[in-house]
Design a protein that fits this description.
271 residues, mainly alpha
């Protein structure tokens, strides 16, 4: 009995220790973000205010937020549109070697982004796309292998009999895809959109090299540039900036949560 009691106490102490380690960074982040006189210490603020958040959404920081939204939403939407247009034929047509083609694309995507940066840069330079549109197109190209693979597998789960019944009723191919296939694949589309959005939101290297001017930088580059600006770190601004930077990805998850729970359960990678 005493042995069990001692074991329970040790378990409680270990769990409390883990909880403190896990909670401390978030506590530091929140306490400093709401402290107008933040010094970077983990302490209870003497005053609480939203001045740091106001600073983090104004001026260049506000532009960077809008740039991030444009790049992330544009990349996610374009990835889904291109992915649907390419994955549906791959799912329905008996193309010889289609699985080998898909897996070859996926294996090539395993290469780090830096490995394909040079050809992407010169292609964008010759096309006049060293701007945010170029970032969106480049990220869409990099997303395409996994987008194709995931969407094809979701389209494979849609019964072909439903499409045949719609065809017999006189539906066109566009109507079959838009009114039968896509509604039944919305969970997979939500997963692909979410992954593309968060990937583009967190992307650092491509926007830094393609955007080239400070007004076009997203928040990922802005967060890096904010460290040590003017020889000092503004902890209040940085922590508020970090919270705002993390908020959209969390918000998108909750908006798509119902479809994504189904989509995550249905994500199967078939050969």
């Amino acid at each position: 009995m005493e042995g069990n009691l001692a074991q329970s106490r040790l378990t409680a102490i270990a769990l409390a220790f883990v909880a403190v380690i896990w909670v401390s960074p978030f506590s530091w982040l929140v306490l400093n973000a709401f402290n107008p006189l933040s010094t970077g210490q983990l302490e209870i603020p003497r005053s609480v205010g939203l001045e740091n958040f106001a600073q983090a959404v104004s001026g260049n920081a506000g532009k960077q937020f809008l740039n991030s939204m444009l790049i992330a939403a544009g990349t996610a939407t374009l990835s889904v549109l291109v992915g649907i247009a390419a994955a549906y034929p791959l799912s329905r047509l008996r193309i010889p070697g289609r699985n080998a083609f898909l897996w070859t694309l996926v294996l090539l995507r395993m290469l780090p982004s830096a490995g394909v940066l040079v050809p992407l840069y010169f292609a964008a330079q010759r096309s006049g796309l060293l701007n945010q549109l170029g970032v969106i197109i480049a990220l869409t190209i990099l997303n395409l292998p996994f987008t194709l693979l995931l969407l094809k597998n979701f389209f494979d789960t849609v019964p072909i009999e439903l499409e045949e019944a719609a065809y017999v009723e006189g539906a066109s191919l566009l109507q079959i895809v838009s009114k039968v296939v896509l509604p039944m694949s919305r969970a997979g589309i939500a997963v692909v959109w979410f992954y593309s959005f968060t990937g583009a939101w967190n992307e650092f290297l491509l926007p830094l090299i393609f955007a080239r001017v400070q007004d076009a930088f997203p928040m990922s580059v802005g967060l890096y540039a904010a460290f040590g600006q003017q020889g000092a770190i503004n902890y209040g601004f940085l922590t508020a900036f970090s919270i705002i930077y993390a908020a959209p990805a969390v918000g998108v998850y909750f908006l798509l949560r119902r479809n994504m729970n189904t989509g995550f359960a249905g994500v199967g990678v078939k050969g």
